[in-house]
Amino acid sequence: MKISTLTDTEGTDSMRQTASGLLVRGFHQSRASRLPPCISTSKIPFNSEEIPNATSVQNWPHLQHLASQFISDQKAASLELGLLIGNNLPHVFISRQEISREDHEPFARLTDLGWILMGNAINPAHSYNSCAHTIRSETIVNLSVQQPTTRRCISFKIKTETFEFPNTDKFEQQILKEPSPENWRYVPTDQNPADHASRGLTITQLLKSNWLTGPDFLWKEPMQFPDQLTPEVKPDNPEVKSLCVQTISSPSQTLYQRLQRFSSWNKAIKVTKFFLNRVAKLKGTQLPINAPLLYIVKCIQAEHFPEVQSLTKEQPLNPKSTVFNLNPFLDKNGVMRIGGRLNRSTALSFSEKHPILLPKSGHFTRLLLQHLHEQVAHQGRCFTLAKMRSSGYWIIGARSIIASLIHQCITCRSHRAKPPTPQMASLPHERCSQSPPFSYCGIDCFGPSMVKDRRTELKRYGLMVTCLASRAVHLEVLDDLSTTAFVNEIRNVIAIRGPIKKIWCDQGTNFVGAVQDLTEKGVLEFKLKPPSTSHMGGVWERMIQTARNILQSLLKSHSDRLDTSHLRTLMYEVMAIINSRPLSVVTEEDMPLSPNMLLTMKSDVTLPPPRSFDESDMYSRKRWDAVQHIANVFWKRWKTEYLSQLQSRQKWVHKTTNNTAVGDIVLIKDDQTTRNVWLKGRVSDCYTSEDGQIHSAKVLLGNRVQAKNSGKFLIRPVVKLIKLLPVKSNDMC
């Protein structure tokens, strides 16, 4: 009869029998253990070949002294497997003593049932561990077998064997020892007892589950694993993670090829010296002082001059060679030098009489010239060339490459570069179209002029308003440069000259403050030009210069006796003189064309004429028709005599090919400070005019400047921006 402490899947059979009151004791042990009720089973999943015996123990030197604790080979062959004690009795297998050894060898463990052998000691081909006990037949007391109708007692010799893992470390080593995928099997979820522990079961579900018995295929002989199915993974599964692997193969490089990455001549020399020192220490030699320089020079010459091989083989050079006229030769170190005609000079050193020959193109040639250029404190081409010759180098075509180096040097650009001058923009349509006077105006303030109020001297300013079409001007006196004073005077101009549609001005604080007050009410439109762009307001700046010249001549004899009212009268006199200036070439046949011809004969400039007028209207009885005819004559002569003079550009004629672009590192020109304190920034935006030219840009200042300035961006004209580093070179850095 075969019994087990475990319940298998056949537990519902009515023919099963139950044994209770069973005591077991090891073959050489005196302590007995009580077993729970055992159930008969049809088979035990072990055979006699897996029973550890004295012979299997003697195979291991560290376990030979335990051979007497195990059964002999003859008795083991006749034993019957009758009792299976499972892992539901963990106290039976508690270790009292353990004998182990490294290198994955089996170990022995002493339990209440005696010594057991753990590991692949019996059959190394098996991938599981086994342990076995031999139990005396006399230790079985009160064994009873219960059946539904009968009751009887039997006595027999019994052998037990159970499955148990060693400690965790040894088990992990055993797994790593068998990494072959063939030794691993997939267990489906419905047959895996481990899922019950992770998901939880009720008592009823636990009794019906395989938690105590394990999967069914473990009880079959031979063991039959489930079919190994590869689950299908859908592409839209959220658990699927895409993996992109980029493999970069880097070929081996020499020291000279690695030095191509350096951007400093001194760093390249230091790194070369470090590696050559290591090589010299390994060889046990002394490294010469100039060894790093000679190594780099020989690598450069070997790469760019095929004449080195000819000189090494003592062959004549090709007459068409670029170095043939220099009579090159190899010195004792294998470096190609220039023969030249100064070999008899006593005032020059050997390196000056026979300089090292270097190519025009090459990374190290540029690094050397940059190093020499820094040594002469960023002077011109002649200074750098003289420093190169005195240092013992001869570079083919050195003048052109030095000029290119100086042109790209950021320090030299910040010291001597000039800002670009874009082509003069086309005139706005307001200056080229017929419109009522003072419909489109340019305004600016000038002064101050000193006046006396009793015994107090006060400052008064002038307001220049010029018409863009007729070039007429209007002058007013400002008490101060506040927004309120400007708004009052601009309202006076509108009351006298008529409504204004658009005003051009700079970004003065009084103008910017008036923009919000006047534009919200829809009175007029402002167009503010960028800061520091006085050249963009030449149409009114030129009129201010004219007004200043006249005021200087008039104030010579009256400057100490003027008050505010007298200054205003003087401003009107100046206005009358400026408006009577000729706009075209003066001839004897016609009256000179001046703004007063239009200003003094207009009746209502806010409304256009109701019809066109010709010469016959001069003899009309209606005086109004005659005035309109004179106005038409003004505009006709304005187009033929004055407007045609604005066709040609007086300066800034050529278009700039190297214009400012977004991303350029620029130096902001400031006429009020010296060049060495000018701010640096990066161009963040460019403003293009209607003719496609860039005349102004927005510049982002550096971090250190942001701490001192409240604004992060500055808008400046391109004529005030000196390009230090173009955007392409900036991206490369």
How is this structure best described in words?
With 733 residues, the chain is an alpha+beta fold. The chain contains 23 helices and 27 strands. It has an 8-stranded mixed β-sheet with strand order 10-13-6-1-5-2-11-12, with no helix packed on it. A 5-stranded mixed β-sheet has the order 20-19-18-21-22, sandwiched between helices. Helix 16 crosses helix 17 and helix 18 (538-554) packs across helix 19. The longest helix has 20 residues, at 623-642. The two termini are 88 Å apart.
Secondary structure tally: strands: 27
The best one-word shape is elongated
- Beta strand %: 15-25%
Supply the helix-strand structural class. alpha+beta
Mean pLDDT reading: 76
- Tally of contiguous helical segments: 23
Q: Would you kindly provide a brief summary of this structure?
A:
The chain is α+β, with helices and mostly antiparallel strands.
